[in-house]
Amino acid sequence: MRILYFAPHQICPVNTGARLRDYHLARQLAKRSSVTFVEMSHPEEEHQDPPEDSGLTSVVTLDKDRTYSLSKLVRGMTGPIPVTVLNCMSCTSTSQLEGLLRSNHFDAVQIEGVHLMEYLPIIEKVSASPAIVVDWHNIESEMMSRYAQTVGNWAKRIAAKRTAKLIELAEDLLLKACKMHTVTSERERQKLLARCPDASIEVIPNGVDACYYSPRMIATAYRKSGQPESRPTILFVGSMDYHANIDAVIWFSRTIWPEITRKHPGLHFTIVGRDPVPAVRALVSERIHVTGTVDDVRSFYASAVAAVVPLRSGSGTRLKILEAMAAGVPVVSTRLGAEGIEVEDDVHLLLADHSEKIIAAIDRIVSSSETRVRLSQAAQALVSKVYDWSLIGTSLYGIHEALVEAREPCAVRKVS
């Protein structure tokens, strides 16, 4: 089987949740078939090849126009197409994709999300009716709507509400346009089925390489990192140019951290993630550390007493939770932060939504080795049983295989 895997961003470096999902899903498919990964890139972005062991047949880069340009913002506010979809549209990338499709035969195409929906008619027109799977990293309209509820700037709030509505309309068209969809959780599946009961939707959860994040591999990564002597740390991991993560660490640092430091004066709070915005860098103090981009996040789990996920907005499921669980680090998360993952409170992690309860949860983990061990062991067992990428890859390949064998063309109509 020949599969075209189409994403609205570069595959590497693998330093965001979306790239992690795409890289590992594509890699798993490549173990079973030929996979051509089609990425989109801005002219100023530096190209980076995937690791040699990725198994991908090739990586094709489409040229992306400038995103959030004035013209796109105006069109997104006044027209029927949301700016997030306009950001991925360009005459150059359309021509490049057509050339690739004309010169290659693909049995199946996997499209990553609603942002690429304007390319569906092209794929259907140029290709010989390939089986099409639309993979939803999250429900984009839900994520934008939640952002509108938390952003302080009134102009951004109005724009976000308008964009959320347009994305929701685009998602409804997408649900009707393609035969098969995959989502990261049963919660999202039910939410989309309520909007489009006839849609075929399967759960392909986010995952983790359990071996890569094993305590042994973490200890090895720590020795190689050259980091100073280990100090007990509360850890947050995530892209620090993403609004939900920015809000989470600022809220945690200002509202929760002062009481944690009073109770546990030896603890440090470390924020690990690429491209921290000025507001995040401003949090740096004697006991709050902001690393920026790191080569290997695993070394930071070596000294982590707990990982916190104090998210108040966003959508999808969080790979940061699965990674911490695989690493044997107890997790404290809001319910929104942990939504979509099959975890039980006080079995696999501790759930808390308000500052006082988050403080109590962290205090409980820091103060009780029994709690840390119990949560860690249950979480690691769950990850190995349900969330290892190899298991998830088998399920995804089965979806592609069944569609190709059925040879029923995915009916794609004009969706703009």
Brief summary of the model shown:
The protein contains 17 helices and 13 strands. It has 416 residues and is an alpha/beta fold.
Shape: globular
Tell me the series of helices and strands, N- to C-terminal. EHEEHHHEHEHHEHEHEHEHEHEHEHEHHH
Rg on CA atoms, Å: 21 Å
Q: How many separate domains?
A: 2
Q: With helices defined by DSSP (H or I, 4 residues minimum), what is the helix count?
A: 17
Order of the strands making up the biggest sheet: 3-2-1-4-5-6-7
* CATH fold name of the largest domain: Rossmann fold
Strand content: 15-25%
Distance between the termini: 30 Å
Q: Percent range for helical residues?
A: 40-55%
* Mean pLDDT over all positions: 91
**What is the structural class?**
alpha/beta
Could you name the ranges where pLDDT drops below 50 across 5 or more consecutive residues? 409-414
CATH architecture of the largest domain: 3-Layer(aba) Sandwich
Q: What would you give as the CATH superfamily of the largest domain? A: Glycogen Phosphorylase B
Largest sheet: 7 strands, parallel
What is the CATH class name of the largest domain? Answer: Alpha Beta
Q: Please report the total strand number as a whole number.
A: 13
Notes on the structure:
By secondary structure, this protein is an alpha/beta fold. It has two domains: 2-207 and 390-406, Rossmann fold; 215-387, 3-Layer(aba) Sandwich (Rossmann fold). It is 47% helix and 15% strand. The chain has 17 helices and 13 strands. It has helices spanning 17-30, 70-78, 83-86, 91-103, 120-126, 140-150, 154-177, 186-195, 215-225, 243-263, 278-281, 298-301, 319-326, 335-338, 355-367, 369-387, 389-406, and strands at residues 2-6, 34-41, 58-63, 108-112, 131-135, 180-183, 200-203, 233-237, 268-272, 288-292, 304-309, 331-333, 350-351. The protein has a seven-stranded parallel beta sheet, sandwiched between helices. Helix 8 (186-195) links the parallel strand 6 and strand 7 (200-203). Helix 6 (140-150) runs antiparallel to helix 7 (154-177).
